[in-house]
Amino acid sequence: MKVVISGGTGFVGKALTALLKDKGHDVIILTRGESKVQDGVQYVQWLTPTSSPATEIKQADAFVNLAGVSLNSGRWTDKRKFEIYDSRMQATITIAEIIEALDTKPEVLVNASAVGIYPTSTSAIYTESSSVIADDFLGQTVHDWERMAHRVERFGVRVATGRFGVILGRDEGALPMMALPYKMHVGGVVGSGEQWLSWVHVEDVARALYFAITTTDLKGPFNITAPQPLRMKEFSYVLSVILQESNWLPVPELPLKLALGEQSKLVLEGQHVLASKLEKHAFTFNYPTAYEALENIYG
């Protein structure tokens, strides 16, 4: 199988690339750099005025779109929010143009998404059947991103949009910043502690994306969150146990709001999200509990 990945050098992209190579598949990564072959992976230049990726790709079984400016790339100024939104729209438009130009269409496009499409709540439980959309920047961004991805359905391509929870990994994503206070011996619960954290190990994210590629009746939105979401106070406790550090110094909401502005929502508010579609299709998580995930990451 030949799989084309945009955002293939990012946090999730690297994990997916490693998984695909381990299973013996061919990987093409769309890059802003020069086209080349390195470590068994083909890199094809895109998003430049002179690049024509379709001529180099020619035929692919699947596309995975992970491209977009990171939500954790800085304070959400108006400029940063435009970059976050526009990078996702432009990358997805270009993916559609590449697919349109291919004589042989891929079977599937698996597009990244996020649980931020759901409103924050301390009481609601969200599954893929939940139709309510968050009335904020992140909710609108994710909603528009998914709609843009579905445009390739007109070419007969199956579309699945993986709504990521908070992805856990040792060196990238949100976890290093969450763990830093504990490593400095000043860790504690962030905000009220009642906010939900729908988390998932990065390896399970890669496995879920691969599962979506190969499961022909999986389409539309599907949540990628571990089976046991936790409230922040519970997650903080598990993290402190794994790191063998005290959990004694709470982090108040106000300083975080002042420091991060609107971006503080990522840690101060959350959603209780369940991966019902993956469960229905009998997908199993290697790390179903926070203890198992964090023990693997820091063990």
Automatic annotation (TrEMBL):
Every DUF1731 domain range: 251-297
Residues annotated as domain NAD-dependent epimerase/dehydratase: 3-224
Pfam families tied to this protein: DUF1731, Epimerase
Leader peptide range in chain numbering: none
UniProt record similarity statement: Belongs to the NAD(P)-dependent epimerase/dehydratase family. SDR39U1 subfamily.
Protein name: Epimerase family protein
Species: Metalysinibacillus saudimassiliensis
